[in-house]
Amino acid sequence: MNHNQIKLTFFSLPENISTARLLVASVGSQLDLSLNDLEELKVAVSEAVSNAIIHGYRNVPENIVHLEMEIGKNQLKIIVNDQGCGIPDVEQAMQPAFSTDPERMGLGFVFMQSFMDELEVTSVINHGTTITMVKYLNQTTSSSH
Amino acid sequence: MEKIIERQTLFLRLDGELDMKTAEGLRQTIDSEIDRRGIRTVILNLQKVEFIDSSGLGVLLGRYKKLLALGGKLKITNVPPHIYKIMELSGLPKIINFYSDESSAYEEGRGA
Fold first, then answer.
1. CA-to-CA distance for A62 and B96, rounded, in angstroms?
2. Percent of chain A, pLDDT > 90?
3. From CA B51, how far away is CA A33, in angstroms rounded?
4. Range(s) of the domain holding residue B68
5. Are B70 and B34 within 8 A, CB to CB?
6. Would you tell me which CATH number, out of the four given (3.40.50.10800, 3.40.50.1980, 3.30.565.10, 3.30.460.80), belongs to the domain A4-136?
7. Most CB atoms within 10 A, among A12, A13, A29, A88?
8. Alpha-carbon A83 to chain mean position
9. How many structural domains are present in chain B?
10. What is the ipTM of this complex?
């Protein structure tokens, strides 16, 4: 797979979460990833985009979510960005079972962390949140001798 | 989604994707049967569910808690392996009872 970059910009609407998943799954299926990896990638992206809509924009539609994918030789990098309210305490938000809503499990970051090889969250109050996730790609075909 | 009510037990056969988009509808469907019809046992068949994330899991946990508070039960059946893996990581199978099929979920706890 050649070096590649894809960007998707969409409104903060729940129906766009499946579109984001579909795009990531489509890109992922062209890479050296197992079916299990693909499933996990879909969950991680679903969590990141849901987080932007639910927490970043507090479910207010017609705000913009950015999804960016950078495909390199060794890794797939996925960046999800919102210009929403930001997370007051990122460390606390990333703890398992931390949720501001009793109907939610507080597992979003746990899933992102478990299913990706790297996870970085940067957030500025009233300016938004950027989630950067990296999945390493297998090197099984890198050597020809 | 296929819905059957038999002897005060709600059977729901779910399909497609359980995410933030579909979670709210599922919550409303189950809650209205609990609140309006007095349903206290809910059996969810997940055989045709293709995707679940924490929003979907949150609705399942929320219905479990609601039913528990009313002395009722939530039972989950026919979970596909890739969905079960996600559920396992969430710890949900430690809280909610899982069954291989609807009839074993229905029979359990009914007595002879």
1. 37
2. 78
3. 18
4. 2-107
5. yes
6. 3.30.565.10
7. A12
8. 15
9. 1
10. 0.91
Single-letter code of the amino acid located at B20:
M
* Token pair recorded at residue B110: 């009914």
Specify the pairing of strand A4-11 against strand B97-99: unpaired
Contact A18 B21 (CB under 8 A): yes
Residue A18 tokens, joined:
């499946």
Express each pLDDT in B15-51 by its tens digit.
Answer: 999 999 999 999 999 999 999 999 999 999 999 999 9
Q: How far apart are the first and last CA of chain A?
A: 19
Question: A19 CB near a chain B CB, below 8 Å?
Answer: no
Token pair 């062209």 in the structure block, residue: A30
Q: Which residues of A touch B85 (CB under 8 A)?
A: 36, 39
Please tell me the pTM assigned to this model.
Answer: 0.92
Please tell me the distance in Å from B8's CA to the nearest CA on chain A. 25
Pairing of strands B73-77, A4-11: unpaired
Q: Read off the pLDDT of residues A83-114 as tens digits, 9 standing for 90 and up.
A: 999 998 898 888 877 666 656 667 899 999 99
How distant is the Cα of B101 from the closest Cα of chain A, in angstroms? 24
